[in-house]
Amino acid sequence: MRTLILLALVGFGAQLVDGSLGMAYGVTSSTLLLAVGLTPASVSATVHLAEVGTTLASGLSHWRFGNIDWRVVGFMAVPGGIAAFAGAHLLTLSGEAAAPVMSVILLLLGIYVVWRFLRLGGRRPNFTGKVRGFFLIPLATVAGFMDAIGGGGWGPVGTPTLLASGKIAPRKVIGSIDTSEFVVSLGASIGFLMALGSQGVDFGMVLALLIGGVVAAPIAAWLVRWLAPRILAVGAGGLIIFTNTRTLLRLDAVQARLPGDAAYYAILGALALLWIVAVAWVVRRELADRRSATLRTEVRVPESV
């Protein structure tokens, strides 16, 4: 029971980040489930089955608050779902050998999330024009495939890419990615159930993640209008980097090359310190930007004579 309550809290936190950031539910949940010893295929199957419900709730919530660009959803949902179905079959065939590969993918996604939002610094360009369909379809294919084999990837690949285009408002990027992810999660779940069967999935874990995510979905859709995404991005990305680095350092091949336990703890300690520094920096930057914005609205520049 304690484990299920913890998973519900994980699902709540992951969906709160995902619904307000457009990424990190799958990556965060998969990272934690992988760390407690589940096989890669079971982890991804569990997360995607839970996401069928959480993404539906998230999509409805984003629709309620007007956060969706239906053109983007139309181009991305089906190709992403087909690619996720294919990725699910590949992961189930690879078996236990996929564990370190999955950790590497999650680690790279975590680094990408942190780097992307530290580099962007929360800038908001002018959102004009449209992202073309011939770009959205291959983007959805890559993101959907990565999502299935890595336990997360739809948001980390899709959201920053669309944000970087400067053509879609951030809240609509996040709402559109979350809404189209329903089809991606459905495609991956069908693929896993066909390959693993129901015996390969712990439905108690699925239900716990689902309950936490559904409760958080409307809150996140509301928060996306004002919450600073870079703080959440660096916080979640740092957790992903730390946990997956820890998993890789515990591999026998890596342990044999380390000079001792001191090196193991030194690496993790250095990562934790960098994570704290990065979070502190983005919080300070966000507060400074908000103070500057407040001063600009309060100060009245006298007209030139």
TrEMBL record:
Record-annotated membrane-spanning stretches: 29-50, 70-91, 97-115, 135-155, 203-224, 231-251, 263-283
Record's protein name: Probable membrane transporter protein
The family this protein is said to belong to: Belongs to the 4-toluene sulfonate uptake permease (TSUP) (TC 2.A.102) family.
GO CC list: plasma membrane
Lipid bilayer topology: Multi-pass membrane protein
Keywords noted in UniProt: Cell membrane, Membrane, Transmembrane, Transmembrane helix
PANTHER family with a match to the protein in the record: MEMBRANE TRANSPORTER PROTEIN MJ0441-RELATED, MEMBRANE TRANSPORTER PROTEIN YTNM-RELATED
Keyword flag DNA-binding: no
Protein location: Cell membrane; Membrane
InterPro entries per record: TM_pro_TauE-like (IPR002781), TSUP/Inactive_protease-like (IPR051598)
Pfam families recorded: TauE (PF01925)
Highest taxon, organism lineage: Bacteria
Keyword Transmembrane: yes
